[in-house]
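Entry type: protein chain
Record version: 2
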Amino acid sequence: MSDKSALPDLPAGWTGAPPDADALFAMAEAALATMPDVFRPHIEGVVISIEEFADDEVLASLDIEHPYELTGLYEGRPLTERSIGESGGMPDRVTLYRIPILVEWIEAGEKLEWLVRHVLIHEIGHHFGFSDEDMHALEDMA
């Protein structure tokens, strides 16, 4: 029999299983709460969803061969491409792909909350029409 007192302290709420979709969604909501106030009114209507993997149609449209290569996706029309009189249509959406995020988390050894935040902010950056450099600056501000 092993001595359980020798085990390291585990994070609060750790169940021994990989974080489920609800846990990733909670991390995404916490990350959104760190966004600078100036951005918040512009992201209120963006829908955040968690899926296991991107489907074959999404992967093909992005010319991605393997579902593990896509951790997040922004779907919508960037604010920089909209006209003032535009209305209707589906809400903008950011999808986080749980399994690829968990694989990257394991491989990179980063904190999972940080990785979820990083992917989310990158996808929100597409909503604003930001370049990769702009997204890095936004992440540094959040």
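Comment: DSSP finds six helices and three strands in the chain.
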